[in-house]
Structures are given as C-alpha cells and as structure tokens.
Amino acid sequence: MNIALIAHDVKKEELVNLVIAYEKIFSQHSLFATGSTGQKIAEEAKLHVYKLKAGPLGGDQQIGALVAQNEIDAVIFLRDPLVALAHEPDVTALLRLCDVQCVPVATNIATAELLVKSLERHDLAWRNIVHRYRLERRSGTEG
C-alpha cells in the first residue's frame, strides 16, 4: 500500500518516532512524504521514502494529486491545531480529497496508531478492490 506521511514542524519528531516504533509495518509499504518530514524519516528510521516538496511549497498539493488519482491508500498527517498556517487552504483541500476518495486519514498520534494497527491486520485490503474497480472503469472492462 502507498502511505503518505506529513507532519507540521512541532509534530515531525512525533511522526518519526511512530515510524521507528512500527518500522516493521512501514517497511512493508511504499512511503511518500513531504519535504523535511521525508528526509527525517529516511535518515532516522532508515526506510526508503519518496520525498516530495515541502508542504508550503506544494507538497500537500502533490500528495493531494496522488490521492485524487487513487494512488495513496492512507494518509498520516500530524497537524498542529494551535497554529494558523499560510497554506491552510492546501491542508483543507487535501483532507477534503481524502474524504472524496475514501482514503483513511489520521491527523493526530492516537488515530495514526489505530491506522498503523489496521495496516498490520490488513484491514485496508478493501482498498485493493477499489483500485481494481476504478482501473476496470477506466479501461472499460467492467462488466
């Protein structure tokens, strides 16, 4: 599965610690992350991460584009709810896209851990059915 990892500055260390704690689970999936978050995860957790732009420089939108194309299966986005951000519209758009595409999204450490545990149990296997169905619709082979 393709997992997007995003964290606001004050939450980056928390996300890195989550990935390290569940390294065995995360190592079984393709990881995508914005800017310095991806760099920190790659360095500290020693996992391969597809690194996109920093969130404020378009990284949130890049993740959103992958979600819109149904290429992301889950998003962990540890947000700082106490700080107003200049790129807040990008964040809101990403969360809306996750809702539209039925992509599970965790925005705090508690829900992130629940999402990781569901990955461990293969509870998100239904995403494969969604992928197949959408591919069939695109190619016109449903039937």
From TrEMBL:
Describe the reaction catalysed, as an equation: dihydroxyacetone phosphate = methylglyoxal + phosphate
The cross-references to Pfam families, in alphabetical order and at most eight, read:
MGS
* Ranges where the MGS-like domain occurs: 1-143
Which InterPro entries does the UniProt entry name for this protein?
Answer: Methylgl_synth, MGS-like_dom, MGS-like_dom_sf
One GO biological process from the UniProt record?
A: methylglyoxal biosynthetic process
Q: Which GO terms describe its cellular component?
A: cytosol
Instruction: List its EC numbers.
Output: 4.2.3.3
UniProtKB keywords: Lyase
Q: Which residues are substrate-binding?
A: 8, 12, 34-37, 87
Active site per the UniProt annotation = 60 (proton donor/acceptor)
Q: Which GO terms describe its molecular function?
A: methylglyoxal synthase activity
Q: Tell me the HAMAP family matching this sequence.
A: Methylglyoxal_synth (MF_00549)
Tell me, what does this protein do in biology? Answer: Catalyzes the formation of methylglyoxal from dihydroxyacetone phosphate.
The record's similarity note reads: Belongs to the methylglyoxal synthase family.
> NCBIfam families from the entry?
MGSA, PRK05234.1
Stated name of the protein: Methylglyoxal synthase
